[in-house]
Design brief:
By secondary structure, this protein is mainly β. It has a single domain (11-173), classed as 3 Solenoid (UDP N-Acetylglucosamine Acyltransferase, domain 1). The protein has one helix at residues 3-6, and strands spanning 22-23, 28-29, 34-36, 41-43, 48-49, 54-56, 63-65, 70-71, 76-78, 83-85, 90-91, 96-97, 100-102, 116-118, 121-123, 128-129, 134-135, 140-141, 146-147, 152-153, 161-164, 169-173. Strands 2-5-8-11-16-19-21-22 form an eight-stranded mixed β-sheet, with no helix packed on it. Strands 1-4-7-10-15-18 form a six-stranded parallel β-sheet, with no helix packed on it. Strands 3-6-9-12-17-20 form a six-stranded parallel β-sheet, with no helix packed on it.
Length: 176
């Protein structure tokens, strides 16, 4: 067996601006950012991507990130199921957004080899995702919501809700 087959990779994550589906003016990519499948990624104007963040596009579906969104260091976004992040979204360091999950196929099939289910994630405008929060497949986080640090979001979050915990639960609504 050749060593070439033993050491495959999905790429280095290096990118150039012209590889993106679309890239707005004044975007900042800090050192160590990795981008996969930039041809399926659109970034709006004035987007900040922090050190060592990973934008993992996919060969199908898209990742769309709106204007003036801030992405903290060491975030991981996986867009296999489709990912839309609105405008003016604050995303704390270490946030993970996942759009696919292995399903259970019975005990005789290792979970790793079971079918993959994909679900688009939508983060609407003006949301704040706290440090190290996790958003799972198929979830919509409504406009103006706040997700607490370390929360695991397993179901939709209503607009202007403040959620926290594992799994995340509504604590209150932001005042008008």
């Amino acid at each position: 067996m050749s060593t070439e087959k033993l050491h495959r990779s999905h790429g280095t994550g290096t990118f150039t601006p012209e590889q993106f589906r679309a890239l707005g003016d004044d975007c900042v990519f800090e050192p160590g950012v990795m981008v996969f499948h930039p041809e399926n990624i659109t970034l709006g104007r004035n987007v900040y991507v922090g050190h060592q963040a990973i934008l993992k596009g996919y060969y199908r579906n898209e990742m769309r990130i709106g204007d003036q969104t801030w992405i903290g260091q060491q975030c991981f976004f996986h867009a296999a199921g489709g990912l839309t992040i609105g405008a003016r979204v604050g995303i704390g360091p270490g946030v993970k957004i996942i759009t696919s999950v292995h399903t259970e196929a019975g005990r005789e099939v290792p979970v790793l080899f079971s079918p993959i289910e994909m679900g688009a994630v939508v983060i609407e405008d003006d949301v704040d995702l706290g440090v190290n929060s996790v958003v799972l497949p198929g979830v919509t986080v409504g406009r103006g919501a706040i997700v607490g640090a370390g929360a695991v979001v397993t179901s939709d979050v209503p607009p202007y809700a403040v959620v926290a915990g594992v799994p995340a639960k509504v604590l209150r609504y932001r005042p008008q």
